[in-house]
Design brief:
alpha/beta, Immunoglobulin-like, 17 strands, globular
């Protein structure tokens, strides 16, 4: 490991970079100094021909000194595999699964922010993404934007300079402390946002926020590292309850409630249980009231199952439940991939065989050798294969309790793709994290140890 990498690991301050995107076009807006500890780096590995999304910092010699795996900021992916779907709707989804996967790859636009170490050693920032329009989510990622960090003219210090991108209706928002350990700059700081809760519903929101925090601290490794975590909730009151439910998705009611973050099902693509919101407004709200926050999660007061994991903001409905929120946090905060075999939860008309490129996801591998490199220091692993590529089957090989292996079937496919263990929260919302996902979350939370 280079000396520069060693030094950047102990950086005590950060920059928050802001970008806009329209389809595959990403534009850099500005960066702002933040008095907070930066997120931990992921392993500095060769990433050519990998699918997914991550960003890197390089020094003035081009040496890689920091790498962070993230949810692709150009996409909003729903988690609907655990939904309680009516049988008739399940049949319709089964027929449309390929269409739904294609819908993910349609054009969208918006804003996103990323946090990097504030270090004189960092000369260049690069963001890599699999492009939704031209390559799809399984295609090799490409560099979508480079930022020269040696040019300091773009550094912002005033949050008001970004207000034109997302105006807050009110500054009269009540902030609640759910858990406080020490200054936010030294902790992994989570903000829970209310969406679709009217003034008379705020008591319910506070109950829901506390219930989510309780679940978080019952779940490892959050339980072990609870002293490294601060949690706040913001009472962002809406005029109406619920979320928009457009009729251009099958079953949509046409509801158009007036809500704080403009949450909507069926957006930006026509998947009804894709529940998204104004992420930039969520960021501005968090930054105004909790300037040193790491991650936000939005609870939407709506009975229809829905959710999504966007970069630095997870969204889920009360109808989906807090376990879905925890799963979404795995995506948005820690860059973990889905481990279930079917994108929609429906049994496909025929098994899905993965034929794409290797993935940047820490908990998914497309070859046995990749699994061994990622999960076992290149030592041999047991293989639980699905030789006949049967949907939902992972073979008959018996594994020791808690054994890490190469278990076939993950990331919306049945074959030619592997997960580390039989069960995991990223496969089933009622299970704990597998050991590999646990280690990824632990690495991030341990970064805030005193």
């Amino acid at each position: 490991m280079s000396n520069n990498t060693d030094q950047i690991k102990i950086a005590s301050n950060s920059f928050r970079l802001t970008f806009s995107y329209n389809g595959e076009t990403v534009e850099y807006i500005s960066r702002k100094k933040i008095d907070m500890r930066p997120p931990a780096s992921d392993p500095l590995i060769e990433t050519e021909e990998m699918a997914g999304s991550w960003y890197t910092l390089a020094d003035n010699q081009g040496q890689l000194i920091y790498r962070r795996i993230i949810q692709n900021p150009l996409l909003s992916l729903p988690d609907i595999a655990q939904a309680d779907i009516e049988e008739t709707e399940l049949e319709e989804i089964q027929i449309q699964e390929e269409t739904l996967m294609n819908e993910i790859e349609t054009k969208s636009e918006g804003y996103f922010t990323l946090v990097i170490p504030d270090s004189d050693l960092a000369a260049t920032f690069t963001l890599y993404c699999s492009l939704p329009e031209t390559g799809g989510i399984f295609a090799p990622a490409v560099a979508v934007i480079n930022v020269d960090l040696t040019n300091t003219d773009d550094i912002e210090s005033d949050i008001e300079t970004l207000e034109s991108f997302s105006t807050l209706e009110s500054t009269d928002i009540n902030k609640n402390t759910i858990r406080f350990n020490r200054d936010d700059k030294e902790c992994w700081t989570l903000v829970i946002l209310a969406e679709g809760y009217r003034a008379q519903d705020i008591g319910s929101f506070n109950t829901h926020a506390q219930a989510f925090a309780d679940l978080l601290f019952e779940t490892e490794p959050f339980k072990t590292y609870k002293d490294n975590i601060n949690i706040y909730s913001l009472e962002t009151i809406s005029v109406d309850e619920g979320a928009k439910d457009p009729t251009d998705c099958s079953g949509g009611t046409g509801a158009k409630p007036n809500t704080f973050f403009n949450a909507s099902y069926c957006r930006p693509t026509k998947i009804r249980r894709l529940l998204t919101a104004d992420y930039m407004k969520a960021h501005h709200t968090c930054e105004r009231f909790v300037p040193k926050y790491n991650e936000s999660i939005m609870i939407v007061n709506a009975t229809l199952y829905g959710g999504s994991g966007q970069t630095r903001c997870a969204v889920y409905s009360t109808g989906a439940g807090h376990n879905v929120g925890l799963h979404e946090l795995g995506h948005s905060a820690f860059g973990l991939g889905d481990e279930y075999n079917s994108y929609t939860g429906a049994k496909p008309s025929e098994p899905k065989v993965y034929s794409g490129t290797p993935l940047s996801l820490p908990n998914v591998a497309v070859t046995i050798s990749e699994a061994e490199r990622k999960w076992n220091d290149s030592n041999p692993l047991s293989v639980k294969a699905n030789p006949d590529c049967i949907h939902g089957n992972s073979g008959d090989t018996a594994l020791a309790d808690g054994e890490i292996a190469a278990v076939e079937g993950a990331y919306y496919h049945d074959c030619n793709i592997y997960r580390p263990q039989e069960v995991c929260l990223m496969r089933n919302i009622n299970e704990p994290f597998c050991k590999i996902c646990y280690a990824k979350v632990e690495n991030d939370l341990e970064n805030y140890s005193v």
